[in-house]
Amino acid sequence: MPWIYLLLAGVFEIGFALGLKYSDGFSKPWPTVATIISAGISLYLLTQALRTIPVGTGYAIWTGIGALGVAILGIFLFGDSASAPRLACIGLIVAGVIGLKLVSG
What we know:
The chain crosses the membrane at residues 29-47, 59-78, 84-103. The chain has helices at residues 2-22, 29-49, 55-78, 84-104.
């Protein structure tokens, strides 16, 4: 169950980061509210996951899921670069997250 909490925390981390963009510097009320709620849920789920998962592993995976998700969605939603070097770096994040999961059991 802690790994499910961690995965969901990462998904809400993606929502939080994207919400920062959509809230336009917290000037738009509804995106701001959604951003704050997403951040709260993400942090709550992260704390639940870290009851069992080592903090270094959990935090690295949480930020990796967030970075990966935001990078991919940035390509599709905001036209961010999808150059080969950028995609290769995204691939390194994926490899790191998978590697941490494998060595953490």
